[in-house]
Amino acid sequence: MIGAVGVGLLGLLALSIPVGIVLFLLGFGVDTFFSAFPLSRGLGNMVWSSSNSATLIAVPFFVLLGELLVRSGVAARTYAALDRWVSWLPGGLVHANIATATMFSATSGSSVATAATVATVAMPQAEKLGYDPKLFSGAIAAGGTLGIMIPPSINLIVYGFLTQTSIPRLFLAGLIPGLLLALAFMAVVVVICAIKPSLGGVRRTFPLAQMLRALVDLGPIIVLFGLIVGSIYQGWATPTEAAAVGVAGAFLIAGAFGGISLSMLREALLGTVKITAMIMLIVIGASFLNFTLASAGLGREITEFMNGMGLGPLGTILVVVVLYIVLGFFIETLSLMVVTIPIIVPLVVAQGYDPIWFGILMIVLIEMALITPPVGLNLYVVQGARRSGTLSEVMLGAVPFVAMMLLMVAALIALPGLALWLPEALN
Fold this sequence. Notes:
Elements: H1 2-14, H2 19-34, H3 43-51, H4 58-71, H5 74-86, H6 93-108, H7 111-129, H8 133-144, H9 154-163, H10 167-195, H11 208-233, H12 239-256, H13 262-296, H14 298-309, H15 313-328, H16 333-350, H17 355-370, H18 377-385, H19 391-414, H20 417-425
Helix pairs in contact: 1-2, 2-13, 3-13, 4-12, 4-13, 5-6, 5-11, 6-7, 6-8, 6-10, 6-11, 7-8, 7-18, 8-18, 8-19, 9-16, 9-17, 10-17, 10-19, 10-20, 11-12, 13-16, 15-16, 15-17, 16-17, 17-19, 18-19
């Protein structure tokens, strides 16, 4: 059954069928060929139970928050401000790409939205200032992945929902690894541009007065992050309520910068509906597929297979890491999460690993899938924002950042405290 489901998944995705539909089709296939009971009769109840959750209400709120910031011009102001603070480093404006992606990740919750925002405002600068297109675009694609690690993260909300794990603790656990990953991205750019300065374009410095004035444009994002995350950890709001507060804050910030109009609101709401509908179709389809797989005995098969290999805790986690790396080449990230979590997480927890820690490890692996071909979404988003060049340039530019993610995976396995220290300290 494992092989049949895997072949079916890759085959249907190769036909360019939407991921949500693929998950439903696989569920019906498992019901037809591998189950002695008519599992499809539970579809109605499964659709209702998987979507009737107050936790998931946070998803459209965070999507709308990101849409408001992008379409009101706040993101462009943030990029210009960070340009004045970090462009003196070897690599110049490439660091502004990563720094802007980091700050925007702290409010948007979406990697694709983060990559699209930074690419839109940054690409014209790359062409004008003569930056190496590979490194410049690869940094944007990699920086965008931080959107699902640094809180608030839509993917961490989904993980918490599927595993019944504390979402506030997941948010805390993702903060240090997310910031360390951003610093690692900047460090690898410094090393590359120190070795070959021509890749980094022109290093620019600005008068101190301009740098200080630019802080005004950084303030709104910092305030918004504090508003969302602070309200959660002060106990004033749940993650869902904090998301609503964040939307209100984003609306006020956009209004303060003169970015509110009826056409902008219409585009932001329409974009929110499209993205939320896509996410919910995937979540519901994956819930139905997971129900059929569990009922048909796949969990038992995988457990027996892993036990038969005689692996210890470290061996098990290494097998899981390799599995996610391979699957990440072919499966969209949110789909990969919701399909594998009900099967993999119980196996990992049975080996004594903390589900909070594993959630962060999984997110790093999912981030890697966003910038590895052929399905890496951020690669296509960044290429779509370019006026020239090929997709292969973006892929090559992302390679050093994939290496940094692999180092982060190794660091999390060797030092679980990177993820667990902060939630335990602030418990």
